[in-house]
């Protein structure tokens, strides 16, 4: 959005980090048509240091979608870093992110936006996934129970998308992480600041193309668990020091 009036009327900014997602980019843009009917929504696609032709595709497609723009990260520094780069470039009063892999529909954003219209801006919104493989669902339940016990906050399905919140909430963040722990950080901060958490069901599907960048095997899951636990302990320690 280039005009001053457009910037002033921008309500929602959706950030989508894209790392080597060239095969999914055209599918994403096909789904944007309905979003673009609402002029108060912008979509920011972050080329998060991709090494395939993601950059070229974004530059080719962006001009065809006036409500979309792209931000380029020269070198990949993590999933969270890409999202944070997009959030800092956003103009909306409501901010959020989702994934580029098409396992959840970008149009889920509209359900989340309806919750802000119903309850006001002082809430934290996340999807709640259904339709996942049993082994992944069991893994999520285990991690949710562990994080809830460790952080003494109800932390359920932490990595579900989309994640949505107010700009005012985002401006309170202090040293957010650059990796997948960003989902945990945002969710925990919402509880810590006593925001009302609103969830809504989102269908989780198989990736149309490509493979996960982390959920590859049990070795990758173990690495994810260790990082999550380490960061959770940091969050708990940081919170206690501020009390």
Strand order of the largest sheet: 3-2-1-4-6-5-7
* Name of the CATH class: Alpha Beta
The pLDDT mean sits at: 89
Helix content: 40-55%
Q: What's the total number of strands?
A: 7
Beta content comes to 15-25%
What are the secondary-structure elements, in order, as H or E? HEHEHEHEHEHEHHEH
What does this structure look like?
This protein has 9 helices and 7 strands. A 7-stranded mixed sheet has the order 3-2-1-4-6-5-7, with helices on both faces. The longest helix has 25 residues, at 218-242. By secondary structure, it is of the alpha/beta class. It is globular, with a radius of gyration of 17 Å. Helices cover 44% and strands 19% of the residues.
What topology does this entry show?
Layout: H1 4-9, E1 12-18, H2 25-35, E2 41-48, H3 54-61, E3 68-73, H4 79-89, E4 94-97, H5 108-119, E5 123-130, H6 134-151, E6 163-166, H7 167-170, H8 181-192, E7 196-203, H9 218-242
Parallel strand pairs: 1-2, 1-4, 2-3, 5-7
Antiparallel strand pairs: 4-6, 5-6
Quick structural overview:
The protein is α/β, with parallel strands linked by helices and 243 residues long. The protein has 9 helices and 7 strands, in the order αβαβαβαβαβαβααβα.
Output the keywords.
Spore Coat Polysaccharide Biosynthesis Protein SpsA, Chain A; disordered N terminus; 243 residues
């Amino acid at each position: 959005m280039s005009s001053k009036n457009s910037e002033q009327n921008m309500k929602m900014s959706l950030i989508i980090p894209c790392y080597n997602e060239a095969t999914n980019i055209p599918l994403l843009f096909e789904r944007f048509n309905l979003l673009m009917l609402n002029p108060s929504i912008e979509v920011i696609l972050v080329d998060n240091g991709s090494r395939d032709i993601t950059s070229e595709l974004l530059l080719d497609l962006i001009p065809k979608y006036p409500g979309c723009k792209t931000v380029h990260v020269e070198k990949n520094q993590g999933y969270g870093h890409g999202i944070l780069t997009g959030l800092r470039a956003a103009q909306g009063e409501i901010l959020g992110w989702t994934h580029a892999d098409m396992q959840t529909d970008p149009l889920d954003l509209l359900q989340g936006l309806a919750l802000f219209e119903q309850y006001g801006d002082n809430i934290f919104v996340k999807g709640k996934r259904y339709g996942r493989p049993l082994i992944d669902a069991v893994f999520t339940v285990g991690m949710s129970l562990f994080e809830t016990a460790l952080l003494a906050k109800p932390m359920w399905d932490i990595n579900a998308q989309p994640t949505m919140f107010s700009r005012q909430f985002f401006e309170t963040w202090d040293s957010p992480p650059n990796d997948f722990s960003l989902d945990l950080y945002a969710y925990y901060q919402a509880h810590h600041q006593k925001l009302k958490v609103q969830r809504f069901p989102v269908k989780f599907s198989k990736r149309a193309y490509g493979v996960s960048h982390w959920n590859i095997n049990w070795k990758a899951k173990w690495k994810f668990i260790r990082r999550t636990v380490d960061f959770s302990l940091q969050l708990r320690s940081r919170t206690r020091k501020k009390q």
